[in-house]
């Protein structure tokens, strides 16, 4: 059997401006995720650890270290003194990159529940390192990605709500996501970063798109009709619309 992967990429061009991915069935019958990259493709498991490995018999290194933490707490009655060394942090970072590639692929495939699963997982990994890394430099390396992960997690939740035409819930989720990012910057005493955050701006743009798709309420329709009546100087119609608007507002 040829080891040349060219046939797998035939007709599937690399797009530098866009993440392109697809789901396939592996030889074992399980779903795989493939992401097109410039020099070939990345293939990942659709479930569990993207590379298919089970470190120390656990689903992931994160699960292994969380079990270590729980054992330490049971033995010592506290988590004080528990640490992640340089090697632990580096391997957790490498693992987080695998999940990053997968949730980007899943987002392009509109598998939003999968995006939520993997971003939630990476947030847990980042929080573990931020709390227990022995070296502050490793905390810094993880910190810079948290706003992006929150953004992707928020987008996936909002887009699920949008698919269900639950516009109010989608808008609340984007608002909550922006607040979470802002709270994160404030926790670092860097609240000024919120003003220039690309992640917050991206969520703000998503909220604007949701508002455009949201059907108008009867009150909003009446206000538009009122503006049009005033523009046409149809004052009798404008007066009628004002009365109807006041009556409707009174009921609300």
TrEMBL record:
Keyword presence, Coiled coil: yes
Coiled-coil ranges per UniProt: 193-251
Pfam families to which the protein is assigned, alphabetical: UVR (PF02151)
InterPro entries reported in the protein's UniProt record: UVR_dom (IPR001943), UVR_dom_sf (IPR036876)
Domain UVR: 216-251
Keywords: Coiled coil
Protein name from the UniProt record: UVR domain-containing protein
Taxonomic lineage: Bacteria, Candidatus Aerophobota
């Amino acid at each position: 059997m040829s080891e040349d992967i060219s046939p797998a990429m035939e007709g599937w061009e690399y797009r530098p401006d866009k993440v392109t991915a697809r789901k396939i069935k592996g030889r074992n019958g399980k779903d795989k995720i493939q992401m097109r990259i410039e020099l070939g493709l990345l293939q990942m498991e659709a479930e569990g650890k993207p590379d298919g490995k089970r470190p120390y018999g656990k689903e992931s290194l994160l699960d292994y270290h969380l079990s270590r933490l729980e054992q330490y707490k049971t033995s010592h009655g506290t988590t004080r003194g528990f640490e992640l060394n340089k090697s632990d942090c580096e391997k957790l970072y490498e693992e987080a990159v695998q999940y990053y590639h997968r949730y980007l692929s899943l987002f392009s495939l509109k598998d939003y529940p999968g995006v939520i699963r993997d971003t939630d997982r990476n947030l847990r990994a980042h929080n573990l390192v931020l709390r227990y890394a022995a070296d502050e430099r490793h905390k810094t390396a993880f910190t810079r990605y948290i706003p992006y992960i929150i953004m992707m997690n928020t987008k996936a939740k909002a887009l699920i709500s949008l698919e269900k035409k639950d516009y109010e819930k989608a808008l609340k989720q984007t608002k909550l996501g922006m607040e979470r990012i802002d709270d994160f910057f404030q926790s670092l005493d860097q609240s000024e970063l919120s003003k220039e955050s690309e992640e917050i701006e991206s969520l703000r743009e998503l909220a604007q798109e949701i508002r455009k798709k949201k059907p108008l309420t009867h009150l909003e329709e009446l206000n538009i009709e009122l503006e049009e009546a005033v523009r046409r100087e149809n004052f009798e119609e404008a007066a009628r619309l004002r009365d109807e608007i006041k009556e409707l507002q009174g009921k609300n």
